[in-house]
Each structure stands twice: as structure tokens, then as C-alpha cells.
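Q: Sequence in, structure out?
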Amino acid sequence: MHDLEDLNPAVLAARVEGVLLAALDVLKVDGVGLMLLDEQDELCLVGGSDEASCRFGRAQQRLKVGPCHSCRRSGRAVTVDDLAADETYSRLLPPSRRRGRAGGAVAFRGVVSAPVRAGGVVVGTLDVMTTAPRRWEHPQVEAVEAYANVLAVLLRLGAAAQNQPSPRPTDGE
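A: Exactly. Output:
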């Protein structure tokens, strides 16, 4: 493992992006997004595995509705088997995909939103999505929660690195 001073913001961002991309294969999903709280205590998209995942995150951010908001409020993972069939969340879908209508736009149907915690406090959410409806089983939800914990560790390392004083040369260097 690298020293904390090696984790500058650009390196941290690249590592987070790598972790998000790896989640596609590890969790067997079609999209992944990371939302974190900003200075106004609002969830904001900070990364996604692809443009469709980013669009989904931005829609949740703009509408202030979605599994990420429910997850943040409850502090627990939120599962949605089918966004199109869910009264609360169906407006996150493009209009052509609501209520099962076919359309050309890529839209996610199954979602799990898991809390990302720092010091026991929810500071964001990890959202994983599938393009088809999906019944989320307990082991799958636990895997998403574990992945959210990995991201939390990366974020804590990044925060610690930013708070570290610059290394000073010792005698003989």
C-alpha cells in the first residue's frame, strides 16, 4: 500500500473511478454511481461507471428523489426491483420507459442504494443499477453494502492524505 502522501486528489479520484468500474463485474450490474454530500448537505454525483449511470445520478440530484435520498434518510440500503413499477421513483426514468413502454433510451430498472459512512455518519450513497428489473436477494444487497464500505475507506484515506503535512527530508537525503 502507498503512503498517505501518495494519495493526492487526482490519484484518489482515479482510484475511486477504478473501484466504480470494477464494481460492474464484481457485483454483476450494468451501472454504478457514487453520490456524496456537498457543503449544503445535499447529495451530489461524484462519479459513475458510464454516462447512463451519471445521468441517473444527476436525475436523482435534480429531482431530489430517488433511492439515494431514501437511503440517506434511513441510513439503510434501499432496493428497488423495478423503477417503472414504483410510484415514488418511476419519474426518474425517461418518459418513454415509464410503465414498461419500450423506448430507445437506456434506462435502469433495478437499483440498490447503499450508505457510504464516515465515522458512523452517512456521507453519501453507492448506487448500483441493472437495465432489467431484478429481485435483489439479501446476499446481493450485502455485497453492495460491503462495496460501499470499501469506497468509504478510500475516501477516508484521501481525507487523511489531504490533512497530512508534507514529508520533510531527513538527514542524509
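Confidence is low (pLDDT under 50) at residues 1-7, 98-105.
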